[in-house]
Structures are given as C-alpha cells and as structure tokens.
Task: structure prediction
Amino acid sequence: MNTAHGTKQAVLLATTLSVLLATTAWRPAEAAGRGGHHVQRGSGGAAHAPRGGAQLNNAHADARTRNVRNTSVNTVNRNVNVNRNVNVNAHGDYHGGWDNDYHPVATAAAVTAAVGVTSAIVGSIVNSVPPNCAPVNYGGMIYQRCGSTWYQPQGAQYVVVNAPY
Amino acid sequence: MKRHILAAAVFAGTIATVPLYAQETLPASAVAATTAVNPAAVAALRDMGAHLQALQRFTVSTELTGERVLEDGQKLQHTATAVLDVDRPNRVRVVMRSARGTREIFYDGKTVWLYTPAQKYYSSVPFDSNLAELVDHLRARFGVEIPLADLFVWGTPDAPADQFESAMYAGQDYVGTDVCNHYAFRENDVDWQIWIKADGNPLPRKLVITRRDDDARPQSTSIIDWVTSPTFRTSVFVFRPPVGAKRVELVPASAKKE
Result:
C-alpha cells in the first residue's frame, strides 16, 4: 500500500508537478490562440450558471489533490477479486465508482515515463486540446486522445492524464 | 436461496471467537454468548432483496459522499448525486452529477447508451438481458458502474449471504423522517452498514461502506430516496442524439496499453 518508497515518490512527484505546472500550464492556451480547429469547451460563467449545468473551476486546486492512492467504494455486491488491487488506479482499471470520474495522475513511475515521451506534463491544466484529438469513452469517462497525450475534461478545462489503457 | 440456507445452518451454532473465516474454523463444541453472524440480520437483508426484486417501476435517487485517499493518507471528501428511473426487467435511465459534470446512461432492453451532455458525446452497445446482468456486464466489460448497483443485485444469487464474518443488528435510527432498522456487516475487505425502513415496505434508505484494505479506511455514504409510484414515460429509456451530438468509441476495460 503506502510504502516508504511510495511516499518518497509521491513527494518527488508533488515537487516535480508544482515546478512544471508553473512553467507549462499556459503553453497550450497560447496554442489555442493561434486558431485552428482545436476543441474548446465553454469557459467562464460557471459561478452564475444554474445548478446542474454549472461548470466548476478546479484549475487552481492543489496538484496534490490528484495524487490519489485509493478511493471509497459504493457497492457491496461486486466480484471482490476484481477491485482488490489498491494500486490499479495507476492503470486506469478502477475509477472508484460512478462518482469518482477522474483519472488520477498518481504514480511517479508513470509520470516519469510521460515526461520522457510526451510534450505535455501529466497533471497540467490546459484550456483547450490540440486539433488532432479523438474522443473516446473509457470506463464511462470521456478522454481526448491526442497522439501519445491524453486529456480529461475538468470543468471548462482539461487535465493531462496518463494513458488510461 | 441455497446459500441463505447454508449460511443459516453454519451460523446457527455458536462460536467462541470471531475468526476470519468462520466456516473453516468453527469449533463444533464452542459455546459463546453471541454469534458473529446474527441470522436475523442476514434474514433482514434477504427480505429487503426480495422486496426490491418485486418492485416493477420506481424512481430512486441518491446523494453520495465519498472519499479519496491521497498518497500520504490524508483524505478528501466529495459528493455526487444520481437519479434512476427503473422499469423492470430491462429498462433503466440514469443521470449522474458530480464535480466533473453530468453523465447519463440509457437502457431500453436492446441498447445501452452512455451520454455526456457537456460535450454531446455518446456511445452505444447492444445488450438484451435484465438489470442485474446489465450491472455486471457494464462493470466487467467496460468498467462502468451504475449508481446504486446493489439495488439490482440484492435478492439475486449474485448477492451472496454466506460470506459474512460478522452480521449484527444495531438498533433503530432515523433516516430523514423514516424509522429504520440498522444492520452492520463485515466481509472480505469491507465493513458495511445499511438502514432499512422499519415500517411498511423494507426499502434501503442509507448505505455506508468502509474499506479495510487501506489504513485510511475510505468510506462512502449513500442516502437513498424512493418514489415507488413513478410518473416517467417509457420514452425516457431511449436515447435520441440531439443536434450536434457525436458518437465516440466505447473502449472495453480489458484494452491493454499499446
């Protein structure tokens, strides 16, 4: 579960993320400014929208809030052998139930890999995604697949996530 | 039902301690003041399940409070709501809302649709079995969980009653204005509690599930509200793509990393 090694990785991750976020968060927004057929969702007005249709703004939430090791479960009648591995979050197999509709950026290993092979930093928030993206539904959640980079809608923006599968 | 009888038979005897797996370690000669598994608690669950399976048309809604455990063990709480229109044996419409947005599931007995209104993205897959099978299929094949999925499983053979390490009656309590009987169970990696309406039909009004496989013990609480004489039309179970809606691929959960 939460080994000393894992804790060290988490600290490293949080530090890495906070540094990288500061420098990368705005880059795709600039890309959006160049026009093109980028996919963009409505932004702003969330505070005034009626309940139910409101888009929440989580762009300023602390990056540590996305470093999730486990979630509560919502059902008791399930095949207990399926969801027992507490670390499967990292592989996108287990979203923690219907309420937990986000893809964690958790493991340091995955983040390191992402840093190495993609231009977008896992955990960073962007205002729009590039024009070459294809939406897919995985585990009931919408993702934008853009080459080797994956995004998940978060409020009116997108968060870069590890490949869900 | 065979499982229920077996469970009752096993636990009719008394046991001295609370073994991890009572069935394996039950000493034949043991005598104790209490049994780990109270047959009355198991029976209450069975009666509730039978009643749930007998409900034909209903609307049920829930407000759920869940927890995320961060890497260092600190917990964050979140909430979500869901409304389900149900017409047994094979129709359901689900609307789920959380911080991320709104998602919908439609099932008319022939096709399952998943819809995300904010992006107008929808996916569909053919399916033709009952709701208990639907719950299992969506979870196993696509990693999609239907809210309050237990409601479709209690009262069926997929809800085993023979694996409790502990089952007890915890007295009466209110949920809203309803007087409820409160039961608590331990099995596998979870402790869970249920509040079942004491007067009239035995409907579940509250469900709390606590994981024991993480020392932070993440817990969910679902308050459940019922409309047993619903007013929905049959058309609510069919998805009709609105203008501008786009079909997206629904990727099976078994898909491996490329």
